[in-house]
Amino acid sequence: MNKKIKTEAVDHLFDAILTLESPEECYKFFEDVCTINELLSLSQRYEVAKMLREGKTYLEIAEKTGASTATISRVNRSLNYGSDGYDMVFTRLNLEDGSGGSEKE
């Protein structure tokens, strides 16, 4: 875990997020907390990560998501050398409903 982000304020934010019980509640909360561009950037990174795990090329990903190659590269670095947060979520989604993501190869 990155100690730079581990603060009391971040703990409070995560505690708040963990109380959300539905996509509708997520929409309400994140629309208040984030700007539209921040939320779209987060969702774009998540889509990039899913596509990278599916073996898509940078060109395919850029065309589908509109992400820059720099963003795709950053997400790829997180997938390969990060804290395995993406893979944890992909695995859980895949186990829950069979459609969320692909497991790490």
Automatic annotation (TrEMBL):
Pfam families: Trp_repressor
Superkingdom of origin: Bacteria
Transmembrane annotation, as ranges: none
PANTHER family listed in its UniProt record: LMO1763 PROTEIN, TRPR-LIKE PROTEIN YERC_YECD
InterPro entries, A to Z: Trp_repress, Trp_repressor/repl_initiator, TrpR-like_sf, YecD_YerC
Species for this entry: Enterocloster alcoholdehydrogenati
Protein name: YerC/YecD family TrpR-related protein
